[in-house]
Each structure stands twice: as C-alpha cells, then as structure tokens.
Design a protein that fits this description.
There is one protein chain. With 409 residues, the protein is of the alpha/beta class. The chain folds into 2 domains: 236 residues, Rossmann fold; 162 residues, Rossmann fold. Helices cover 43% and strands 16% of the residues. The chain contains 14 helices and 13 strands. The chain has a 7-stranded parallel β-sheet, sandwiched between helices. A 6-stranded parallel β-sheet has the order 10-9-8-11-12-13, sandwiched between helices. α11 packs across α13. It is globular, with a radius of gyration of 21 Å.
Length: 409
C-alpha cells in the first residue's frame, strides 16, 4: 500500500513522552512492507528538532513543518495573533489550532505530486486538515475519554483568568471531537473504553470504530543488577491531567500505606513540566525529577513501576515501556486498558482501589522472585503483542478494511 501518514509529532523512538515513540513504532512497522510518506510537525518539545533532522537525512519520504518560536519578537507576536484569531474564529481547542498550524500548504504540495491508497491520520489536531478526495482516511483518536476541566484549580487570584480560559477551551472538545470523527471512513482507538466513548458521543459512528492496541520499538530488558531495593517509579507528562491526578493519589494516599508495610520504600516521580502542585509533593520519601532527558536510568533503578490511573483514556505508553523493560507493573483496571485484547489477562498487578494498589506494591517489594517473574512475563507479552511488526499487522487490517469500504459497515 501507498500510505500517507500524518502525525502531530515527529516519530522518535527515544523521544520524551508517548507520542513520538508511538509514531516511531508505527512508521518502523509499516515501512517494512509498504511505501510510507510522512507529513509531520514539531515545536519546542525536547528532541523533536533533532529527530526531524535524522528522519529527513534517512532517505524516508518525509515532509516536516518547523513550528518553533521565531527569534524575531515581531514575528512571534504576529504568530500569536494569527493563532488567537484562529482560536476565536474556528472554535477549535487551542491544541488543535497550534497542532495544525502551517501544515495544510505542505500537505497540499505532497498530495499534488503523488497518489496514495490510504491516509492514516494520527491524533485529532490533524483531523482539521484537508485530505485527498476519494482516498480512504483512517483517524486514530488517541484519547476519546477526557479528564474533567475541574482538574485545574487556581490557588492564586492571578491564576484565575488562565483557569477560565482553559475551562472554556476544554469544553470545546465536546463539539469538536464528534465533528472530527465524522470526517473519516474509520476511527481507530487503543482500548474499549475509548471505543465506548466514541459510540456514546457519536452513536451514528458506532460501525466505524475499531479497537487496535498500539505498539512501540521495544527497548532492551533492564539490567537487574542496577535495581535499587524499595524504589517505586511513576512516570508521565504532567501537562496531562490524568497523570497529575495519579501522581497526587500515589504520593498522598498510596505511598503512606506502602511505607507502613515496607518502611524503606521510596517514590521517584519523573516527568515533563511538573506544576507547583506536583513539585510540592517532594519530601523525605518522594523525589520529583523534572524534564529528565532520558527515562532509562530511572527505569533501571526501579523495583516496581506504578501507574495508578483513575481518569482519562488513550494509550498507556508508560505501562508498555515498563513491561518492555521487564519491570513488574502495578496499575488499576483503567491503567490496564489496551492490554486485554489478546485473550488471557495481561501480566500486570491490578488494584481496584488505593488499598489494593498499596497491597500489591508492598507484596511485590517483599517478593524478589515473584516480582522478577512478573517482569519477565510482562516483557514476553510486550514482545509478542506490541512490537512494531505485531502492530503493523493489525494496522494493515484496518487500512485494508477502509480500502474495501469499511465505513459502510
């Protein structure tokens, strides 16, 4: 197949955050058998400019827009005014306005020069672009279940105007998402929870929704000799509200219960852009590491990786990455979504509430053999079901269905 792959970030197997790793796996898997043209964009995110340079030099048919801030103050203000005008005119969420900015002319040029069998559109900001007419298009909705805007709480009067704007912006997703989904022949999601959300918000699209668990370029297994006893690791992008909620729950409620059982237990919280409410969690048993260039040393140190997810949907890349490293993972039923589509239950320790999560952590910290066996099974599971090759086979089926008129089903 000739696949036009449109992504909201540049694929990068070693990137910060989930999406660059996700797109790297998708690109790697599909490129083994298909002709892939990439259209993408990047801004200020760490490592994205370097990843773009590598892709452009690799021989891949890649076309990438640089959205980094200009060094010219006049140019920066002009861009801000244009984006603000677009936000006011289109009633799109701010992330959509910024994510799609500058991409349409590049995309038009690519489409004018070559033909495609299918368009794979990754992430909803890309859904507002115009794609070649008559070519089947598949949208991957990365998170149909969204955390409530009440997760933003302004503690200072000076923060309240920003909170009001964020709340207004967040409410725009309610109308934007169904309208975006309707533009595509098929809508792909990563877990059944997101599929249910699409069906609830747009019942007429129920026949277009396909659940397809994601993949990643799997890292090598962690060196067990570097593991530090009693070390619990939480990772996440703190701009994402479900990660903030999970971090607070873990540090304030779950960890004290764990330490009552394992007094030496310590929590490492590693992620990008931690706000004050996360930084304030640091203490004698909690270390907050901001904007680490690599998760690898922290994954090596961890005895257990914990993902106590209570809200949101989409992918659980931090869970998959830990599984791929051969780490024992403790999570919730929501955190395990996307790993239950292959028959037998996934090799994860799952707690339904804070007490159960704390008990699972304490039991694994006290059982070296059991913890390492769970990690071994987790890595085997990730290799079998979430490698780029395994994921590409599932993607092929979705794209072939779209080519065959899957939207009519």
């Amino acid at each position: 197949m000739r696949i036009l792959l449109v992504t909201s970030m540049v694929p990068d197997a070693t990137g910060v955050g989930a999406m660059p790793k996700l797109f790297a796996a998708q690109l790697a898997g599909l490129s083994q058998k298909h002709e892939v043209t990439l259209v993408s964009t990047y801004g200020e995110d760490q490592g994205q400019a370097e990843a773009a340079e590598r892709l452009l030099a690799s021989g891949l048919d890649a076309h990438i827009v640089d959205r980094r801030r200009s060094s010219s103050p006049a140019r920066r203000w002009r861009v801000r005014a244009e984006l603000a005008g677009s936000w006011a005119t289109h009633r799109w969420p701010w992330r959509v306005v910024c994510g799609a900015a500058g991409l349409q002319p590049l995309l038009d040029g690519v489409v004018a020069r070559r033909d495609f069998d299918v368009v794979a559109v990754e992430d909803n900001p890309m859904a507002v672009l115009r794609f070649p007419p008559g070519v089947p298009a598949v949208l991957t909705e990365h998170e149909a279940v969204r955390a409530p805007a009440s997760g933003w709480r302004a503690k200072r009067a000076s923060e309240r105007p920003g909170q009001i704007l964020r709340t207004i912006d967040w409410r725009r997703w309610d109308a934007f998402l169904p309208a975006a989904w309707r533009r595509f022949d098929l809508v792909q999601v990563y877990c059944e929870g997101d599929a249910e959300a699409v069906r609830r918000l747009a019942p007429e699209l129920a026949g277009r929704v396909r659940v397809n668990p994601y993949g990643m370029i799997l890292p090598p297994a962690a060196d067990r000799g570097r593991e530090q006893a009693g070390t619990i690791l939480f990772t996440g992008t703190f701009a994402h509200l479900p990660n903030r909620d999970a971090a607070r729950w873990l540090a304030t409620e779950i960890l004290p219960a764990v330490r009552a059982r394992v007094p030496g237990a310590r929590l490492l919280m590693v992620g990008s852009a931690p706000p004050r409410q996360i930084l304030d969690l640091a203490g004698p048993a909690v270390e907050v590491i901001a904007d680490a260039p690599s998760m690898e040393p922290y994954l090596e140190r961890a005895s257990i990786v914990v993902a106590p997810v209570r809200t949101g949907g989409g992918m659980r890349m931090k869970v998959l990455e830990a599984m791929g490293r051969g780490k024992a993972v403790v999570t919730t039923p929501l955190g395990a979504e996307g790993f239950s589509a292959f028959g037998a239950g996934p090799p994860l320790a799952i707690g339904t509430d804070g007490g159960a999560v704390a008990s699972a952590i304490g039991a694994l910290l006290a059982d070296d053999a059991g913890r390492r066996e769970l990690g071994r099974r987790a890595r085997d599971f990730a290799c079998r079901h979430h490698s780029p090759e395994a994921w590409a086979l599932r993607l092929e089926r979705v794209y072939e269905e779209a080519l065959g008129g899957g939207a009519s089903q």
